[in-house]
Every structure is written in C-alpha cells, then in structure tokens.
Amino acid sequence: MKANFTNVIENQFAVTGLTGGQSYEFRVTAKNGAGVWSTPSESVTIIAQDVIEGPTAFIDPKFKSATGVQAGETFVIEADYFGKPLPDFGAGLPAETAEAVKVSEAPLPPGKITLIDVTCNSAGLSWEKPDHDGGSKITCYIVEMQAEGDDTWTICSESKALEVTVTGLTKGKEYFFRVSAVNEKGRSEPKSLLTPVIVKDTSAEPIICLLSNTFSVKAGNDLKIEVPFKGVPPPTVAWKKDGNMLKETSRVNVQTSDTSSQIIIKDATRVDVGVYEVTLTNSVGNTSAEIFVNVFERPGPPSDLSVDEVSADFVSVSLSWNKPEYDGGAKITGYIVERKELPDSCWLKCNFTNLLDTSLEVTGLTEGEQYDFRVIAKNSAELFSAPSETTGPVTVQHDVEPPKIILEDKFRQVLIVKAGDLLKMEADISGRPNPTVFWLKNSRNIGTKGRIEITATKTHTSLLIRESVRKDSGQYTLTLQNTGGTTSKYAWTIYGKEILQEQRENKLINLNKPNNKNK
C-alpha cells in the first residue's frame, strides 16, 4: 500500500495515520526521469511508537579546571547538546562547577598609615588592611621610602604584618614613606604617609594620665580600672596589690596596650579591697601611681535592740539600738524601723524620713495590741542590712517599774576621806519609765559645778568631788523619782582625824574638832 500520494523528491518522508503500537513494514521504490521504476528496496519492520533519547551536553575540557579572569573581562562558556526529541534550552536549575571560578585583580591600597615611633635612626609605621583584597589573599606589603631631595622611591621593607620598623635612617634627615599591598594578581597603588618624618630622638619618660585614683564598686558587680599613659618607647607595665605582685585569676585580668593598661575585676568581693600600684618603665625612666579600690557590701544588722519605754497614754513605744559592727565599707547613713502587729500582720515602716539616731519613739499604735519591732541599717552605698533581731512581743500598755537604787556596801558605811583626796559615790539604778536623778547634800540639791561633777545614765549615776575639803563633809542623799514612786539612799562622809557621833533618830552628823594630841 502506498504511503505517499504525491511525488517525494527528498530521501526522507514522514508517514502519518499509523496506529500506535502496531507493527508495520516499509520499503521504497525509486523512479527516474524516463518514468522507469526500480525494484523495491528491502523492507524494514517498524513498530509505531515514540523513540526517546535523553539530552546530553558536551563542554570543552578547558572549563573543567579553575579559570582565571581579569576583572572587567567578558567570560563565555560554550556547550553542544543532543537528544530525541531535541531538548529545549535556557536557564535551568543551578549546578556547581567542579572548582570555583575566581575573579581577581590587584588589591586596593592599604588603609590609613600611622607613625607609631621615631628614634634617632629608625621609624615605626603601621597601617590598616585594604578595603578590598582584589579577590585573592594579600601575600605581603611593600614599604618604600624617599629621602628629602631624592626623586626615587626605594623599597626598604616587605612585611606580612601590618606594621614595620624601618632602620638605618640618618638622624636629622627627612623621609617620606608609602605602602603597597600585594596579591597573586599584582601590586596595589601605594598609600602615602600624609606628613614627612624627621628622624630624631623622641624618647620620653612615662607619664600616667589618671583623672582619679579612687574606684568604688558594689559587691557582685564588675569593676574596670583603666590607666592611660604616654611614653616613648612604649613602657612596660607592672601591677601590685597591697605591695605584692598582682596575680591574674579567672576573675582578675590585666590588659595592656601601648597607650593604656586596665584591670578588669569580675564579681567584686571584699578581698578585692586594697591599694593597687601601677608602675611604668622604659629606657628613659619610670613612674608609678597608687589606686585605691573600695568594694561596698551590705552592712551588718543593728544590734541590742531594746524597748526603753511603753506608754499607753501616748500609745507609743520608745526603742533604742546599737550601730552595726560592720558598715559594709561605707558610712552608715540611716535606719529604717519596722513594726508588725501580732500575730499575723506584715512588716510596716515606722519612719518615712531618714533616721540618723539610734533611737525612735514609735507612735500611732493601738492600746492593748501586741507588736514586734526590728531595725534595718543603710550605708552611703545605698545598701541595706539584714533586719536586726526583733524585740519580741510588746504590749502597748502602762509599763511601770518603781525606781530602785543599788549601792555598794562601802557606801552604806561612813566614808572617811582625807582633805585633797577625790571623793566619788556611785550607784546602779533602774526603773520604768527612766527615773529622774537627784543628788542632795544635807537635804539641799547639788549639781555639776566647779569641783563637783554629776553623771547619770539609764542604769548608773555617780557624784564626783575633786580636791575635797572639810566643808564637803555631811550627809549625801541619792533620790530617784518616776511615776512608780520615789526612793532614796543615804551616805555619810567625814574627814580623817574627826570623830563622828551619829544621832540615829534624826540622821544628823556632829563633827568635833580634833584635840591637840591627835595633831
């Protein structure tokens, strides 16, 4: 059966109208210009189905290794591709090359150049890295110099570091310097030092530039002590604490540069308190400075809190206490008194202004109620102590104790004192509220005056007479008085070589002058 019904001139033809999966035999017959047909060709059997070949590509082997390209140059990769049906081409999924394609060029010039040191025959220079390395690693830096009056630049050093010391210079001469960066693609444009360098001896003794030599920190906080200094050449630095070499630990570190040294103390404690000494030394000389470090902590609690008086009339309680034994390294600046109504109330402040005294009368209480009291100390570092021990339950009601006098036995007897000697009488006293103290001689009040001195506290009183004379002889009475009552005690004094006759009925003393035999 014919597959074509028109003349086919070319040696290929697409047969259509076939059934997929069906097997067909094909043969071809040729006809010449005279109209004579040839014998048919051998037939071939073909199954009507798609023939598919996966796409393949061929890339020139030169692109399979690293390829260097100058910055700005056009880079083209070519490839041949095959497949049935013929594949489409365009931007597909990204693929990694076997090796990186590096685009590189000579680096940019180095950054800022700084003159760090000058001596009579050398100059120290430092510089910053280039902003861009050109796409490949900087291998070295070339330092050039030009002497004053010379038109040529001479390479004086090659360095992988960012600084160099140029030696062999002539004292008093002026030099210009410049630095270039080098990578595998070449050398950068040079970067020049802005000003010429005059070679001279600039050595200088170290100077410490410390604004304050006292540093304070709260316990648990970090402390940084920075000591700026000057010196040419840069000095070496040594630290001491309380006369001993400072030991660096996990908490205490020292960091030193050419212009400063600093101590960093982490989580400061009381052991960090002391005198620190920094010493700078160079070829010209040395200097040192002392630095005082304070570490502020919580003060200790107030002690010996006591109830001095309870008043139901004024519904108040008078308290007193002693200062903390430890102030936390800073002056005690005040106290907070707290009260708690028993049994279940919370602690409340009793004073709302700073309290400097070690006593307070707490008012505004309720008669018949029970209270507990405590005191908290504060220091100038604004740190508060733990509360003191409490007073224990205190009931707001009249608390009266009659006054009492406790005399030593010797004051219960007649005192014999020589003229010119010191006469001292004293007694322990008690009572609530605190009693008023009166001293009397021969039933007349006496007070502190001239040779006589009277002292009285809550628990003790004394009478002191200096350089006693005959008229000091007599009956002395100590009287205490409070709302609970009045009490008195008596003592008699007589001067040596005088005879005392006591009339017990009226407590009088008769003094007889000594006779001539006793003189």
UniProtKB/TrEMBL annotation:
<feature type="domain" description="Ig-like">
    <location>
        <begin position="190"/>
        <end position="294"/>
    </location>
</feature>
<dbReference type="GO" id="GO:0008307">
    <property type="term" value="F:structural constituent of muscle"/>
</dbReference>
<dbReference type="InterPro" id="IPR007110">
    <property type="entry name" value="Ig-like_dom"/>
</dbReference>
<dbReference type="Pfam" id="PF00041">
    <property type="entry name" value="fn3"/>
</dbReference>
<dbReference type="InterPro" id="IPR013098">
    <property type="entry name" value="Ig_I-set"/>
</dbReference>
<protein>
    <recommendedName>
        <fullName>Titin</fullName>
    </recommendedName>
</protein>
<keyword id="KW-0677">Repeat</keyword>
<keyword id="KW-0393">Immunoglobulin domain</keyword>
<dbReference type="InterPro" id="IPR003599">
    <property type="entry name" value="Ig_sub"/>
</dbReference>
<feature type="domain" description="Ig-like">
    <location>
        <begin position="403"/>
        <end position="495"/>
    </location>
</feature>
<dbReference type="InterPro" id="IPR036179">
    <property type="entry name" value="Ig-like_dom_sf"/>
</dbReference>
<dbReference type="GO" id="GO:0048738">
    <property type="term" value="P:cardiac muscle tissue development"/>
</dbReference>
<dbReference type="InterPro" id="IPR013783">
    <property type="entry name" value="Ig-like_fold"/>
</dbReference>
<feature type="domain" description="Fibronectin type-III">
    <location>
        <begin position="1"/>
        <end position="51"/>
    </location>
</feature>
<dbReference type="InterPro" id="IPR003598">
    <property type="entry name" value="Ig_sub2"/>
</dbReference>
<dbReference type="InterPro" id="IPR036116">
    <property type="entry name" value="FN3_sf"/>
</dbReference>
<feature type="domain" description="Fibronectin type-III">
    <location>
        <begin position="109"/>
        <end position="202"/>
    </location>
</feature>
<feature type="domain" description="Fibronectin type-III">
    <location>
        <begin position="301"/>
        <end position="399"/>
    </location>
</feature>
<dbReference type="GO" id="GO:0031430">
    <property type="term" value="C:M band"/>
</dbReference>
<dbReference type="GO" id="GO:0045214">
    <property type="term" value="P:sarcomere organization"/>
</dbReference>
<dbReference type="Pfam" id="PF07679">
    <property type="entry name" value="I-set"/>
</dbReference>
<dbReference type="InterPro" id="IPR003961">
    <property type="entry name" value="FN3_dom"/>
</dbReference>
